[in-house]
Amino acid sequence: MTKLNVVMQEEPAVAVAAAAPTRAGSAGANHSRYKKFLSRLDLSSGGGGGKAGSWIESMKVSSPTHVKSAAARAVSSFASHDEQDYDGWMKLHPSALDDFEVLAAASKGKQIVMFLDYDGTLSPIVDDPDRAFMSDEMREAVREVARHFPTAIVSGRCTEKVTSFVELSELYYAGSHGMDIKGPNDGPQHLKAKAQNVLFQPARDFLPMIDEVYKRLVETTKCIPGSRVENNKFCLSVHFRCVDEKKWCLLAEKVRSTITDYPKLRLTHGRKVLEIRPSIKWDKGKALEFLLESLGYDGYNDVFPLYIGDDRTDEDAFKVLQDRGQGFGILVSTIAKETNASFSLREPAEVLKFLRRIVEWKQISMEEECRV
Ligand SMILES: O=P(O)(O)OC[C@H]1O[C@H](O[C@H]2O[C@H](CO)[C@@H](O)[C@H](O)[C@H]2O)[C@H](O)[C@@H](O)[C@@H]1O
Which of 60, 88, 246, 309 gives 20 to 30 Å between its CA and that of 40? Predict the structure, then answer.
């Protein structure tokens, strides 16, 4: 994994503190507030802590005083602001648009299977999670992708919610961070036939517990303006995007004290969101493997999975691809971040361009094959 001047997305201030002394004052304040917030969660110990020690670790890595790796120093020694750091990072994680030909050549003769995260990948990040709609252009691009390649949406949201946003019945959906997998109801015949078998819910036993914790969290956090608890069926999201930073520690404390009573749950985090989920060995990476197997591609060398995502939870899927040496992960990010992805795209608008490009490329390849 590349070690760089790593920052956690949604914490640009930390990066700024490292790179732009002029803004270091407010960045430093932000950073220490965030550290306090994390320590309130006491994530490194049991009682719902789970793997959150790695969360604390990533805070340390993103700290301005963290000693950079040799690679990071080589890349960023000349850097004096964020954009230069990003340019260095881009050399290691090139744009999937600029290097499209490289990516396409690597997939030549192989079956591409497309995996797409939803929030921050297909739809822009907005304050209200209920209004994170994808554009009609994006929907059309995903529809076209699914006409050419088996396609799955892999999201932290519950399957019903993300399906209602995407509105394409020909896709696979792996909601609740991959804990609720459904096959297409519609679409090309070859997908429909295989999809009949696809319905997997490894955390079914947790449903009553998740419901109970949801009610408790709604109650305990209601005094914190802007906070919001989202029931994602097999997991929960506690949003703090609209919470005054001064109240983050209080929110953290309330979440921590609630889930201490549930040692079978663990806490992770995403973009201004705390995520509570069952402590089972299941994540977006496992969901990707499950879907590849369901599609009949297990042990099949000529498959080329592409996974596009923006969040920490997508790293599990990038890691699976890296370990299998198959396909590529593409990270959506405007900042340099530690990642297992090979390529990058800056934002959903670039994802749209990439999806259109890959369809166009596939159509041209098919025409060429017909001519031969
Ligand atoms: O795996 P994803 O599809 O990326 O889902 C992850 C979380 O996404 C949503 O929250 C994020 O997007 C919201 C809308 O733009 C934003 O307000 C929030 O701050 C982000 O964290 C979703 O609401 C969560 O339930 C998902 O876990």
Answer: 309
Q: Give the N- to C-terminal CA distance of the chain in Å, as an integer.
A: 42
Give phi and psi for 79, each to the nearest 5. -80, 135
CA of residue 124 to ligand 1 center, whole Å: 10
Model pTM score: 0.83
Residue 229: give its domain's CATH number. Answer: 3.30.70.1020
Spell out a b/e string for 223-238, using b for 16 or more CB atoms within 10 Å of the CB, else e. Answer: ebeebbbbbbbbbbbb
Residue 118 lies in a domain: yes
CA–centroid distance, residue 171 to ligand 1 (Å) = 20
Lining ligand 1 with CB less than 6 A are 117-120, 125-127, 129, 132, 155-157, 230, 232, 237, 239, 241, 270-273, 275, 311, 313
Q: Counting atoms of ligand 1 from 1, which one is nearest the CA of 123?
A: 15
160, 38: one domain: no
20: left (phi over 0), alpha (psi -120 to 50) or beta: beta
Q: Does 183 lie in the same domain as 49?
A: no
* 250-269 as b/e: b if 16+ CB within 10 A: bbbebbbebbeebeebbbbb
CA 338–ligand 1 middle distance (angstroms): 20
Q: Which atom of ligand 1 is nearest to the CA of 118?
A: 3
185: tokens are 């109801």
* pLDDT mean values, one per 10 residues, the chain (372 residues): 42 30 40 58 42 37 36 38 79 97 95 98 98 98 97 97 97 97 73 60 97 98 98 98 96 95 94 96 97 88 96 97 97 96 98 98 90 78
